[in-house]
Amino acid sequence: MSAVTRAAVEAVLRQYTDPYLNQDPVSAGCVRAIEVQGDQVSVQLELGYAAGLFKNGWAQMLQMAIEGLDGVGAAKVDIHCVIAAHKAQAQIPGLANVKNVVAVASGKGGVGKSTTAANLALALAREGARVGILDADIYGPSQGVMFGIAEGTRPKIKDQKWFVPIESLGVEVMSMAFLTDENTPMVWRGPMVSGALLQLVTQTAWGDLDYLVIDMPPGTGDIQLTLAQKVPVAGSVIVTTPQDLALLDAKKGVEMFRKVNIPVLGVVENMAVHICSNCGHAEHLFGEGGGEKLATQYGVEVLASLPLSMSIREQADSGKPTVAAEPDGQIAMVYQELARHVGARIVLQEAAAPAMPTITVSDD
Length: 364
Hints:
Layout: H1 6-13, E1 31-37, E2 40-47, H2 55-67, E3 74-81, E4 98-105, H3 113-126, E5 131-135, H4 143-146, E6 156-158, E7 162-164, E8 166-168, E9 171-175, H5 190-202, E10 209-215, H6 222-230, E11 235-240, H7 244-259, E12 264-269, E13 274-275, E14 282-283, H8 290-298, E15 302-305, H9 310-317, H10 322-325, H11 330-348
Parallel strand pairs: 2-3, 4-10, 4-11, 5-9, 5-10, 11-12, 12-15
Antiparallel strand pairs: 1-2, 6-7, 8-9, 13-14
GO cellular component, one term: cytosol
Organism: Pseudomonas cedrina subsp. cedrina
Domain MIP18 family-like: 6-77
């Protein structure tokens, strides 16, 4: 029986690819310790993204692989998730108590952006992260309803200065809906809307959050520019449907984030296919492969493809989105995959972002 070496253990680890980092644990820099005592091997890995539902199975797979190495009697693999604060736009200070800000955006309304944002936040929390969600859709806030927060609920005020976010389903929630009447329209001009967004972001007493998900309003206007210039965003997620009209607007969203140097982490394709509940027939009501075309054109990935499902709508309307309502269901698992991919993409982004460009307006 040959003696076990660290190099031999590393060689085994290099044979397995983390499906979210797209690298083996050694190349990805996840190895924190390898100890060999006789025929006993102990390995400690550290993931930089939330992966609470994935890490145990990943550890077991690696453990079995190491135990197959000649000379190993038993192996133990421990995996911990340690989420760090990643750099966003240059020259923009970070938010107090918030490590990473993720913007969920769409070029047009009606593509399921808010539902995606809610389920992404819940999925990140279910993976073990500390998560908040900010409803930045000032004109049409909906996160209060989705998280089952009763109409008329108001946030507490801390030290006469800070809004205390309302916790629901394990996520800290803040929305303009908590500060206004549900039936009162927000008839505001752009500067007022931008000011309200900044107040919500900077004057909310967030807890120690690993991720703050921002549910953006649709389009590429004042709020998006304010976010890019004032809020440190680690990455954005573009939500679309396969429909050609939605894709046209989604392209504008991708281009906007690129112009303001916010990384596009990937695309989420909603309503990709409808499965008949009676006969099981699959039909692409809004077209097919649109998200893939968009992702290919801009060199990003399709992070998730979700069906047109009545249950997604019903669960969101009832105040308990899919990840909370059916955590072990097939659709919830797609959202969990989305959450892990988003966290991993943030880790993989370049450590430093270029300086903000100068935005000018001309008559051309």
